[in-house]
Amino acid sequence: MSLESEIEKRRTFAIISHPDAGKTTLTEKFLLFGGAIQTAGAVKSNKIKKTATSDFMEIEKQRGISVATSVMGFEYSEKQINILDTPGHKDFAEDTYRTLTAVDSVILVIDCQKGVEAQTKRLMEVCRMRNTPVIIFVNKLDREGKDPFDLLDELEEVLQIQVRPLSWPIGIGDSFKGVYKLYDSSLRLFSANKTEIAGDEIDIKGMDDPRLEELLEDSADQLKEDVELIEGVYDPFDKEEYRSGMIAPVFFGSAINNFGVKELLDTFIEISPTPQARETATRVVHANEKEFSGFVFKIHANLDPKHRDRIAFLRIISGTFERNKFYKHIRHQKKMRFSNPVSFMAREKSIIEVAYPGDVVGLYDSGNFKIGDTMTEKEDLAYKGMPSFSPEIFKELVNTDPMKSKQLEKGVRQLTDEGVAQLFTKSVGNIKIIGTVGDLQFDVIQYRLEHEYGAKCRFQPVNYHKAFWLTSDDKAKLNEFIRLKHGNIVYDKDKNPVFLAQSAWIIKLESKDNPEITFHENSEFKVSV
Ligand code: G4P
């Protein structure tokens, strides 16, 4: 098959949600449709259990198991689907943000009872940064929830994206009767069924079809009214607007009952983008360029001391990746080849000979890779867009075994290369501040420094609220600010200056007092305050 047809065939995306909205359940139903798993519950058993939140070893163990499900590839309707898994646990939110740089679109799951939740909002902000196309699936319609019109308003308002319903629920909770597919005027009546496609599909000839009354009885009038309102309020669905991230189609259903899932998957296949071009520091690289290029978006370290290997996950952007062929590691300026690259089809890891744009290959690594690294057979180019977001918790790392300073330095460098946490250094006194999204990472760092590098540390609380990356067109002003605020200035791993603010109030004040300086909430310098 030609490179073009391989690209045309592929869809690489992530399913994201606030924990508990139904991401795992929906993923599982997709895999069942694709024949990648045979029984319900197979993915679920890999999910990090909510009860284990304070026991990081337990979580790491489960994360170890979930390497196999980091990428779930399967074929459906002649398409090669790659679902990139994202950890639901809040403390691993950074992992999720990075995974979003490696997908071409996302499906966002919302709980109809809870509406837009905190994590949903944050995830959507990350999608908006790259104009990633989003399809929204409103889940749990078998339970009482918010009014669908109110939900649509909430989605638009809170997520700041225009929405367009493509299916519409008939009733909700106990009175839930099914969904009406707005884009092809067919009706699917609800019947709870966890393993097969639920309900029969019935073609309806528009809202005047007399069968509507027969099938829906007293709910028919409500549906007619709703549909009329929808057609009046929302513009017709435009695939290009969706693909440019301007409009999000919305589906309703119940993942656990396998209801509305097939409609979602079928539409997804039809409208979602094929592997997309990506920006590098020098130019845009297109998927159909012959030479291979890709970037590492995730590194998974094995905590088992008997298997101290790491797997770097590389997303292919252009060309054909081949086993045992030499490619250039741009940061190290060195040629490398991989004798055992793995792919993740049907939840099995297997060695692959070739892979194409949109695919993710797992590369066994002994410490050569860092998140964001580019591998290529093209000219020297480096993919952009592996942003760091401001951490939420900051602690100073204190070396408690000065004889092992070297090991500590190496360990901290490697762990932060893997993306376990962010490292900020104060220029005076080489003070190391570790920033994370959750408390769990501090335990992970302490444990791994001791067990893998033989170094010991403790963490000392520091009172910072948020990190802001600094830029200015006026270099003198920026240097002056850095000099004056040296107590709050640290440098990230790439030596960019960062201001650590003690409170939201301080950052408001500083940005007002220093209009020449921009305070960015992430290292990609797009979102700023
Ligand atoms: P997550 O990955 O987003 O965290 O969510 P997950 O799929 O684990 O779903 C969270 C809970 O919601 C699960 O219940 C799941 O069974 C339930 N759920 C998912 N889809 C639906 C739906 O369409 N309707 C209803 N009523 N419930 C749904 P749990 O009790 O936490 O787990 P379990 O004991 O069922 O495994």
Structural features, described:
The chain is α+β, with helices and mostly antiparallel strands and 529 residues long. The chain folds into three domains: 3-74 and 104-271, P-loop containing nucleotide triphosphate hydrolases (Rossmann fold), CATH 3.40.50.300; 278-376, P-loop containing nucleotide triphosphate hydrolases (Rossmann fold); 393-526, Alpha-Beta Plaits (2-Layer Sandwich), CATH 3.30.70.3280. It contains 14 helices and 31 strands. The strands form eight sheets. Strands 2-3-1-4-5-11-6 form a seven-stranded mixed sheet, with helices on both faces. Helix 11 (405-418) crosses helix 12 (440-453). The longest helix is centred in the middle third of the chain and has 15 residues, at 219-233. The structure holds guanosine-5',3'-tetraphosphate (G4P). Guanosine-5',3'-tetraphosphate binds at residues 17, 19-25, 44, 88, 139-140, 142-143, 254-257.
Output the CATH homologous superfamily of the largest domain: P-loop containing nucleotide triphosphate hydrolases
Compute the CA-based radius of gyration: 24 Å
First-to-last CA distance: 48 Å
Query: What are the distinct ligands in this entry?
Result: guanosine-5',3'-tetraphosphate
Structural class: alpha+beta
Query: What can be said about the biggest beta sheet?
Result: 7 strands, mixed
Write down the CATH class of the largest domain.
Answer: Alpha Beta
Mean pLDDT: 86
DSSP summary, beta strand count: 31
- The total of helices stands at 14
- The helicity comes to 25-40%
CATH fold descriptor of the largest domain: Rossmann fold
The shape, in one word, is globular
Instruction: Report the β-strand fraction as a percent range.
Output: 25-35%
Unreliable stretches covering 5 or more consecutive residues = 48-54
Strand order of the largest sheet: 2-3-1-4-5-11-6
Overall tally of structural domains: 3
CATH architecture of the largest domain: 3-Layer(aba) Sandwich
